[in-house]
Structures are given as C-alpha cells and as structure tokens.
Design brief:
Bound molecules: iron/sulfur cluster
CATH architecture of the domain at 17-107 and 187-325: 3-Layer(aba) Sandwich
Mean pLDDT: 92
Number of helices: 12
Structural class: alpha/beta
Order of helices and strands: HEEEHEEHEHHHHEHEHEEHHHEE
Distance between the termini: 37 Å
CATH superfamily of the domain at 17-107 and 187-325: P-loop containing nucleotide triphosphate hydrolases
C-alpha cells in the first residue's frame, strides 16, 4: 500500500519501504578506449546494494576513485547501469517510459562538487535557475519568476544575484545557486556529491547548516557522498563505506563511528584528526578497478590479511541489526 505523500507523486512505494533501493548496481566503463579491443572494463561500481530511507541522510564514504560518485550518478540515471536495478519511490526506473520517467527524474537531483563548472558561464544566475522549469515544462512564466525569487532567497542570496554571472559570485554563493537549482522541481532525493569539498572550512559549515535546514523544511532525503569522514560524521544518519567499487561496511551512525567492523573503516576513522585512536597507516595504493585483486579487494592493503583473504571474497553480511560488513574476520 502506498503512503499518502507518495500516492500524490504517483509512486507505488509500500509504507515503510525505502525511498531508494539499489540492488546489485554495477557500472563498468570500457578500459581500452573507444574500440576496447581487449574487452577490458573498469569496474567503477561492482554490485552495490543499499537502501535509503525517506527523510534520512545516508553518507557514502571512501577514497577518491572508489566508485562512490559513479554510484550516485548511476542511481539517478545520469548514465545507464551495466546491470542491477534501482527502485525509486516504489518504481523500477528501468521499466518507466518517457513522461513518467521524466517526472521521476525531476524528483532526483544532484549538487556537484564544483559549483562553477555546474553553471553555464554565459548565462545569468536567474537564467540558470530557469532551466529546470523550461526542460520540464513546469509552471507558468509568472509562477517561474516567483519560484526563482523564493529559491534564491531561501538559499541565503537575494534578487540582486539573479542578474549576476557565475564569475561574479564566490564559491560558496555558487554552491548556494547549485542547491537552489536542485530544489527547483520539488525533489524528494538530492545527491550531494562532494558538495562541500571545494569550499573553505567556514563556508562548508554554512552550506552544511543550510542543507540541514532545507532537509527539515522540504522533507528531503540526501545521499551525501564525501571522501571526508569528519563531514559525513557530522551530517549522516546512516553510513556506507566503499572500497574499489564495493560496499565493505554499512550501518547506523553509531555502528560505523563507535563499533566499526571492517579494517578499512577502522583505518579511515583513525585518520580523523582528534579521533582519539591510534592512526592506522595503510600501505600501498588503491589497486586499479580495471584489475581488482582476487579474493578480498582490500587484501593488498589490509593489516589483518590472512592467506584465505587472497582466495575468497568475503560477502557483505549482517554483523548486527542493520549493520553489515564484508570481512572474513568481522
Ligand atoms: Fe582484511 Fe581479510 Fe577482512 Fe579483507 S577479509 S578486510 S583482507 S581481514
């Protein structure tokens, strides 16, 4: 049975079901150029399953290149999946066609890391904010004008900024515009893809507070993607940890930050300044996702690696209520 707020959006989501369910999502890219004669693939995302509940902030962390941004983009259909399934608000996105798919896509938005490159330098901020309404044929001209005025003020800017060009705004102001654009079509889900990583620390705090206020006001759900565990610690209700295209641990905020089970999660936590635990230095680099190691993908860097870790891949299994880890020694 669909709950009342989702029924209005045309969803078939059962009461208590996640807003987003990713099932064994894979995204491979050809590793050998356009022709890819060797038929090699970079396994950017390699079988990630997770649920995101309505109204929560799900933090997704991992080092650069672990596949977290690719996963976020695949989730909202910015490129097709290699395999797997994404269910959004009760609907399998692969089964939706034309108008209905467009309506669902409007409800899934993204805020990018680099607010400058996300905005067209040749058009004003006002025209940038107009684009989502034009693309989706939403609202009358007067309604659009009122909505844009509302949005720009709601993100802490003013009508003055609507006639400015991106180069006339600071990084923090541009990111506020990026957030306003994401809000334009009343989304249910916003992917914040390293959304504060390029900002100065003081501006980061302002933007994080703004995102928290908007979440309460508009009942938003966030997938908060970041390499920075301190930021994820601050904003998330639940957390997933990715390594080399795989989810290696997920759980509640307390599961991940107070009782981590995977050696990689423990190493990431040990790097948080002032965390009070001894620093675990990982040796070596992250292996290439085109040639991931056999067995446990983390075995080449794991301080606890045993012989069987090199041969057998550990499945992601429950280690507590809602807490999962992929490690033979969990
Ligand atoms: Fe380390 Fe082995 Fe666990 Fe992998 S399975 S994280 S190599 S202990």
């Amino acid at each position: 049975m669909a709950d009342s707020n989702t029924a209005a959006s045309g969803s078939v989501r059962a009461a208590g079901a996640p807003l987003v369910r990713a099932e064994q999502v894979r995204k491979y890219f050809p590793a050998g150029g356009m022709l890819n004669l060797k038929q090699e693939f970079t396994r950017a995302v390699d079988g990630v399953s997770l649920d995101i509940m309505a109204g929560e902030t799900f933090g997704l962390v991992g080092e650069s290149g672990c596949g977290k941004s690719t996963f976020g983009r695949a989730l909202i259909g910015l490129f097709p999946l290699t395999s797997g399934r994404v269910v959004f608000d009760g609907a399998d996105l692969a089964l939706l066609r034309s108008r209905r798919l467009k309506d669902f896509r409007a409800r899934m938005q993204i805020v990018f890391q680099d607010p400058g490159s996300a905005l067209n330098p040749r058009i004003t901020i006002g025209d940038s904010l107009l684009e989502p309404f034009v693309i989706h044929h939403a609202l009358t001209r007067e309604e659009r004008r009122e909505r844009i005025q509302f949005l720009i003020e709601r993100v802490g800017l003013s009508g003055y900024h609507l006639s400015r060009y991106p180069h006339e705004l600071s990084g923090g102001q541009k990111q506020r515009v990026g957030i306003a654009r994401a809000l334009a079509l009343n989304p249910a889900l916003i992917i914040c893809d390293e959304a504060v990583s390029a900002l100065d620390v003081s501006i980061q705090a302002q933007v994080i507070n703004l995102l928290a206020d908007l979440q309460k006001e508009f009942h938003l759900t966030y997938l908060f993607i970041s390499h920075n565990l301190s930021v994820v610690h601050h904003v998330s209700n639940r957390v997933g940890v990715m390594y080399l295209g795989k989810l290696v641990e997920s759980g509640s905020h307390a599961d991940i930050f107070e009782r981590p089970r995977h050696p990689y999660t423990k190493a990431l936590l040990s790097a948080i300044p002032g965390g009070g635990v001894e620093r675990i230095i990982l040796s070596g680099d992250v292996p290439s996702p085109a040639h991931p190691p056999a067995g446990c993908r983390f075995h080449t860097r794991c301080p606890q690696c045993r012989d069987f870790c090199r041969a057998e891949e550990p499945p992601l299994e429950a280690v507590g209520a809602g807490h999962y880890a992929a490690c033979h020694l969990k």
